[in-house]
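USER:
Before I trust my own judgement here, I would like a peer's view. Write it directly below this note and I will take it from there.

ASSISTANT:
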Amino acid sequence: MLKLRLKRIGRKRAPSYRLVIMENTTRRDGRPIAEVGYYDPISKNYKFDTPEIKKWLTYGVKPTETVFNLLKKAEILES
């Protein structure tokens, strides 16, 4: 099953995340199928490739709970 989830990048105590499409059995920092955005929790910056995310969601990709909340905040998803 494919998931839309966060992949951690960055230094110790300075996390940054990429929004990626991965198989749910792949380890957190493993090889993604596609990268569709990034999120910096320290500065609260984010950039999402909205058309690409919507395309993957129509294919049946399930976002994790955290990613779902980020997409709602970015007004990409409703409810």
Remarks:
- The CA atoms of residues 15 and 21 lie 19 Å apart.
- The chain has one domain: 2-73.
